[in-house]
Amino acid sequence: MGLSYQSTIVASLKRGQLKRLQTPWVVALAGNPNTGKSTLFNSLTGLHQHTGNWPGKTVLRAEGHYKYQGEHYSLVDLPGTYSLFASSVEEQVARDFIYSGSYHAVVIVVDATCLERNLNLVLQVLEITPKVIVCVNLLDEAARKGIEIDLKLFNKELGVPVVGTNARAGTGLEKLRENIRGVAQGKINCKPRQIIYDREVEAAIEALLPKIAGDDFMSINPRWLALRLLEGEEVVCHEIKGEMANDTKTSKLALLGG
Amino acid sequence: MYLNLANLPIGQKCSVKALSATGMMRRRLLDLGFVPGATVLAVRKAFLGDPTAYLIRGAVIALRKEEASFIQIQ
């Protein structure tokens, strides 16, 4: 089913996106803590859910299924996280799953009452994959606080579908299912907003890209990888080094040394 | 006026000026919403004076003194 746990990021990256996945369509639910992911999960799947234990992890992750227009969808409820640059075990679970690319779409659940705080994760996920649906949840609570969200503008700014929901009452779910279907099956074309960094950073990315792109081992977003290398992201760099030591064809160790 | 967040009295607001942390700690603080220009309110202190709870961007986050001292404020 393509849901097996990937212990290393690079192994996940290497596997490439979606190659082995059969139906059902796999959809990940991500988001900050306390945004109503699990409520949404339950509303979407009804009672057909069970919690699953990841081998080697103590953290629980829920997995459920639903049917939409005659097709099966498998929904993975990831632990809440503020960032993909994980510092706790729960966050690692979420991070590794997003890195793995073993899904057809990611739903990022955001809290309408404090949208700003949630955008960090949204942008981080958009740098990895364009197959994203942003679900603005807790719209009822926001309305009570006098907060109104311009979903159309939000959609325009992000370049991916934005759906407003109130998971507790079940409103907006139909539209969410429709958009999940569209993104997972490639019927909706996502053009996520790309973050442009300072000129120095952009120049460094430009310099790195030709060395990364086209390498089958890095079939995942080369720009994202360039950023992590520049940042010296420990886990990613470490694993890439190990990976390259095993690969005699590549001469890119020099790249990491520099 | 207070130099860093650890010195901010309870009930007072301030704005984040810069972070003096590096690496994972810097990343973590940024992820939690402590970015330059963000408004922070010191909500309350734990029984022994540490950690302190801060309201930032709609969520209450507790930081130890050591962590808060990385956040320069004005």
Poorly predicted residue ranges of chain B: none
Cα end-to-end separation of chain A: 40 Å
At CATH level 2, the architecture of the largest domain in chain A is 3-Layer(aba) Sandwich
What's the pLDDT, averaged over the residues of chain A? 79
| Helix content percent band of chain A | 40-55%
Counted beta strands of chain B: 5
What's the SSE blueprint?
The complex is a heterodimer of chains A (258) and B (74).
Chain A: H1 9-14, E1 25-31, H2 37-45, E2 49-53, E3 60-68, E4 71-77, H3 89-100, E5 105-111, H4 115-128, E6 132-137, H5 139-144, H6 151-158, E7 162-164, H7 173-184, H8 199-212, H9 222-231, H10 234-245, H11 253-257
Parallel strand pairs in A: 1-4, 1-5, 5-6, 6-7
Antiparallel strand pairs in A: 2-3, 3-4
Helix pairs in contact in A: 8-9
Chain B: E1 13-19, H1 23-31, E2 39-45, E3 52-56, E4 59-63, H2 65-68, E5 71-73
Keywords, separated by commas or semicolons:
heterodimer; A: 258 residues; alpha/beta; Rossmann fold; 2 domains; 11 helices; globular; disordered N terminus; B: alpha+beta; five-stranded antiparallel β-sheet
Describe this structure in words.
The complex is a heterodimer of chains A (258) and B (74). Chain A has 2 domains: 5-184, Rossmann fold, CATH 3.40.50.300; 199-255, no CATH class. Chain A contains 11 helices and 7 strands. Chain A is 42% helix and 17% strand. Chain A has helices at 9-14, 37-45, 89-100, 115-128, 139-144, 151-158, 173-184, 199-212, 222-231, 234-245, 253-257, and strands at residues 25-31, 49-53, 60-68, 71-77, 105-111, 132-137, 162-164. Chain A has 258 residues and is α/β, with parallel strands linked by helices. Chain B is of the alpha+beta class and 74 residues long. Chain B has helices at residues 23-31, 65-68, and strands at residues 13-19, 39-45, 52-56, 59-63, 71-73. In chain B, strand 2 and strand 3 form a beta hairpin. The A-B interface holds A 82-83, 85, 87, 111, 113-114, 116-117, 120, 234 and B 24, 27-28, 30-33, 56-59.
